[in-house]
TrEMBL record, chain A:
This is Sm domain-containing protein. PANTHER family: SMALL NUCLEAR RIBONUCLEOPROTEIN F SNRNP-F, U6 SNRNA-ASSOCIATED SM-LIKE PROTEIN LSM6. One of its GO terms (molecular function) is RNA binding. PROSITE patterns: SM. The keyword Ribonucleoprotein applies. Its main location: cytoplasm. It comes from Paramecium tetraurelia. Belongs to the snRNP Sm proteins family. SmF/LSm6 subfamily.
From TrEMBL, chain B:
It comes from Paramecium tetraurelia. Belongs to the snRNP Sm proteins family. This is U6 snRNA-associated Sm-like protein LSm5. Residues 5-76 form the Sm domain. It is found in: Nucleus. GO terms for cellular component: Lsm1-7-Pat1 complex; spliceosomal complex; U4/U6 x U5 tri-snRNP complex; U6 snRNP. Plays a role in U6 snRNP assembly and function. Binds to the 3' end of U6 snRNA. LSm subunits form a heteromer with a doughnut shape. GO terms for molecular function: RNA binding. Pfam families: LSM. The keyword RNA-binding applies. One of its GO terms (biological process) is tRNA processing. CDD domains: LSm5. It comes from the Eukaryota.
Amino acid sequence: MSHEKRTSADFFKQVFGRTVNVKLHNRTEYIGVLAALDGNMNLVLEQCEEYLEQKLINKYGQILLRGNNVLYISAKFNQKQQQEEEV
Amino acid sequence: MTTILPLGLLDKAISSRVWILMKDDREFEGTLRGFDDFFNMVLENVIELDGGKKNKLESILLNGTQICLIVPGGEIS
């Protein structure tokens, strides 16, 4: 029985150009379009919003996020055209 | 007597639910899609538990550096 194993490399390929939610160890979240990603989880996000505890605190045109801070990178594959929802 | 390596056990858990405990009091429960040597994990249909707050996520790449414990077939209590 073959199951498809999706490693981090596959995840990276799927996630380029999509809007992602990146959560850091310090609970800060960044929602933006993924422009670049490497094996250290360093990221470049564009049109990025910075949230702390569900509250928007900043907006950036382009940021470089150092990968050691990243807790997870979350992507939505059902591309719904809606405002960033923060529940 | 068969030896089971840790990553071998993880490989067996692919496509099933896993419960992950982090070094701080955070938990994740999701369907394991894949992992790598650094314990970075691809999870789907994830529930994140952080300080009592639950959050649902569709698909995540979880950084392995803070992972403490993985329970195959487990759930967030």
